[in-house]
Design goal:
The chain has 263 residues and is α/β, with parallel strands linked by helices. The protein folds into two domains: 141 residues, NAD(P)-binding Rossmann-like Domain (Rossmann fold), CATH 3.40.50; 107 residues, Dihydrodipicolinate Reductase, domain 2 (2-Layer Sandwich), CATH 3.30.360.10. The chain has eight helices and twelve strands. The protein has a seven-stranded parallel sheet with strand order 3-2-1-4-5-6-12, with helices on both faces. Strands 8-9-7-10-11 form a five-stranded mixed sheet. Helix 1 crosses helix 7 and helix 2 runs parallel beside helix 3. The two termini are 16 Å apart. Bound molecules: nicotinamide-adenine-dinucleotide. The site of nicotinamide-adenine-dinucleotide (NAD) has 25 residues, from helix 1.
Length: 263
């Protein structure tokens, strides 16, 4: 049985997502933020969030919470995962841009502690991923699949983790491997499009929270499946829901499908 309230440590508490987590957790009686972890004390100007939390730059503090939530940077995610594994504290992360080597380390650590990861915590995107897989499978070989994403000017990785998530869903529907089929960018004399290509397009600008469209272009018809995020609160609320769900689970890797379709 979960203690009431579940104590959460937030890694990246001074960032855009960290701030949204602090706002969305404020006033709840099922969970409470006990540790607001920032990169350096200087990166947080005084107390954080509506509950005026005192930040710490000690990432080992994740080990003193019931569940840790990380929205920071790849190195910090990995660092938090190691501390969580040492202390047996479940970890929820949404940090994007990890290398394959870093993902292997995360996989290894998930044999010691539950690690929940979603490239996108919105309910809508996770339903979209299922629809994309179904559509790719339904169209079969005769369709060209392209994925467009748009984000704010501050985003540092491309294409977005969500675009890759949708790419993997499309590849699965077509029984392809995304790494073999992905065309990450096009420029110059590219030659004609390959039948099994899954193409990616990226836009960066302004304050766009996140837009993703998967195009299914067939001869004589085109299907476009679009999701638009207008408030990053959807990601924070999804991550808080994941944290509650993860508390008390055995070690392993978990994702939003586990919460949405098996809850
Ligand atoms: P941001 O730059 O606003 O915030 C990141 C914060 O992490 C910064 O305050 C930074 O100082 C902090 N940080 C970096 N290293 C740290 C460390 N060692 N210890 C503590 N804090 C550290 O970025 P953001 O928009 O909040 O996004 C953060 C991450 O979450 C990115 O990877 C982004 O792509 C991802 N993201 C995922 C989802 C999702 O649903 N999965 C949604 C939005 C953003």
């Amino acid at each position: 049985m979960a203690p009431s309230p579940i104590q959460l440590a937030i890694v990246g508490a001074a960032g855009r997502m960290g701030s949204s987590l602090l706002e969305n957790a404020a006033g709840r009686d099922d969970l409470q933020i006990s540790h607001a972890i920032v990169r350096t004390e200087r990166s947080a100007t005084g107390e954080l969030g509506p509950e005026k939390l005192q930040p710490t730059d000690d990432i080992a503090a994740v080990g003193r919470a019931d569940v840790a939530i990380d929205f920071s940077a790849p190195e910090a995610f990995l660092d938090a995962a190691k501390h969580c594994a040492d202390a047996g504290v479940p970890l929820v992360s949404g940090t994007t841009g990890l290398s394959e080597v870093q993902w292997r380390e995360i996989d290894d650590l998930s044999s010691e502690v539950p690690i929940f990861y979603a490239a996108n915590y919105s309910v809508g995107i996770n339903i979209l991923a299922h629809l994309v897989e179904r559509a790719a499978s339904g169209f079969g070989d005769g369709v060209d699949i392209e994925i467009f994403e748009a984000h704010h000017r501050h985003k540092v990785d491309a294409p977005s983790g969500t675009a890759k998530l949708l790419g993997r869903a499309a590849a699965e529907g077509r029984s392809l491997n995304l790494e073999d089929s992905a065309t990450w960018a096009r420029h110059g004399h590219t030659g004609p499009r390959g039948d099994d290509e899954i193409g990616f397009q990226v836009l960066r600008g302004g304050d766009i929270v996140g837009e993703h469209t998967t195009y299914f272009c067939a001869d004589g018809e085109r299907l476009e499946l679009t999701h638009r995020a207008t408030d990053r609160g959807i990601f924070a609320r999804g991550a808080l829901r994941a944290a509650r769900w993860l508390y008390g689970r055995p070690p392993g890797r978990y994702n939003m499908s586990d919460v949405l379709f098996d809850e």
